[in-house]
Please model this.
Amino acid sequence: MSIPPDLQEHIEETKESILVPDEEILATEFLGLSDDAIREIIETLHSEDAEKLDLILDDLTTSDKAELIEKTTYENRQALMLGFSRHFDADVISILQEEVRNKTLETMQAEQVAKIISDLESDDALDIVESLDPEFQQEIMRKLSAKIRIALQEGLSFPEDSAGRLMQREFVAIPQFWTVGKTIDYLRAAKDTLPEDFYDLIVIDPSHHVVGEIPLNKLVRAQRTVKIDDLTLDEVHLIPATMDQEEVATLFRNENLASAPVVDEDNRLIGIITYDDVIFVIDEEAEEDLLKLAGVTEDDLYSNIGKTVSSRAGWLFINLLTAILAAAVIAIFDATIEKIVALAILMPIVAGMGGNAGTQAMTVAVRAIATNEISGANAWRVIGKETAVGFLNGVLFAVLIGITAGVWFQDAGLGAVIAAAMIINLIVAGFFGASIPVVLNKINIDPAIASSVFLTTMTDVIGFFAFLGLASVFLL
Model:
């Protein structure tokens, strides 16, 4: 088939416009706001050129606006929110980092916040309300409609980080005796009241008990006369409202779910969780565990200095105690160090290598616990593997540091001692790096928080004791 030249030219131009988008558009849509863009916005704000700033803000995406609010100063944030509030709607507020969002909302009137909450889906609304000051929270509740207020109060009654807090109350439920045709007609007629996004239809009996699910793709492929009962999936993944959100995420990952119904203690349908909520949970839990390993919290970047100092001081105090314990071990061998000064030079190498090797094993174990990949069935296998890795790495680096120390200080005995200490400490690092998180998890202590403190103590104390003890025995 031949294509007219003018049509062919139009097709080529269209392809180029699609395949080679403008670089500035790409930067804005996919990489966020540049520092230059933020500076331009703030300069325009200070110049009081409202018309120009309106045009600039009109071109920003929702995520760009949220990034702007998070990266600018408190004063600029207030000026933007007060003078250009129409640009910072509910969708922008809902994706702000929690600390910034709370500070922003607490400067508004309760009526304004209530309007923002009313424009959001129930799960996003609850996420905002639950983090606010209790007094301000109650004031906002009084400004909401009865329907929204009751839904939020019910959500707040569930445990923190549970499925009841995570779920949204907008879902599509249909009776099991309907036909495909009646269901499709209902969906078309109720288009203005349906959730913005949904992937499955929940099939219920007259008592609102869940009897099945139907993926949308299965519904639209069926003939109109087919009964819903004939399409219903036999396997239904019911999520109790009290289930922990990490367990919910594990279920979604293992079963490859797009959505799942949430039920109360009587197994009646009360909400639904979708995959986008679960992605948020997975990101949140992973970030939380990572930050806990360092003894910091998610909002440290945005909280005031006093709050940040107080949140970190506790773990620093514990680290100070463990450092004193390590120093006490060194003090036991002070006479040995006085006679062989080279020991003081080489001690940090043993402790540092042990700490780093232990952290590697610990990170693997903490992640595996978070993703439910470690249980009683395979815990010892994982610990054994990490111990073996510690031994083999210990042998490798023992040879390197042994030769280096022997040549450096012209003392083959010193090289042999530090090589032996290196092997011992890396075995200890592998064993305790993997086992400490498992033991802490077994006794219901969060391994992400406490593991590093115990691990540092073990690698420092045993590393110093092994190195200085061997030196006392074989070099004096």
